[in-house]
Description:
Blueprint: H1 2-19, H2 24-41, H3 49-80, E1 89-94, H4 100-112, E2 116-121, E3 127-132, H5 138-156
Antiparallel strand pairs: 1-3, 2-3
Helix pairs in contact: 1-2, 3-5, 4-5
Amino acid sequence: xxxxxxxxxxxxxxxxxxxxxxxxxxxxxxxxxxxxxxxxxxxxxxxxxxxxxxxxxxxxxxxxxxxxxxxxxxxxxxxxxxxxxxxxxxxxxxxxxxxxxxxxxxxxxxxxxxxxxxxxxxxxxxxxxxxxxxxxxxxxxxxxxxxxxxxxxxxxx
Length: 157
């Protein structure tokens, strides 16, 4: 899989060299073009992991941007209105993530979303404690984070 990623980067750099302009849009287009070339030329049916992981990673990136945008609007709205709408609370989230990398990336996702803060990871690494600024219901928050965790684990596993 690393070999395919490096080949994809090489193809995108070749595209940038052929076009003669080094900007991010040409590099991104070259990366997508290289991805489709590698996908078409893939003869190994058992090694499809790279071709499923890249779209999932891009989808997770846009999902994260959407979650961050919604949380920023919620916090900004609360700041500019005279009433405070926040209901703080601490939630214990039981994780499906097992490795240190998975737990770390999940906690980074949670911490980068405005209105949430990771407080602690349990000793047995089975749950994570999160301070939530806008806790309407524990079940809604857990299901939202569970959805993000599932998307993240699809990329990592």
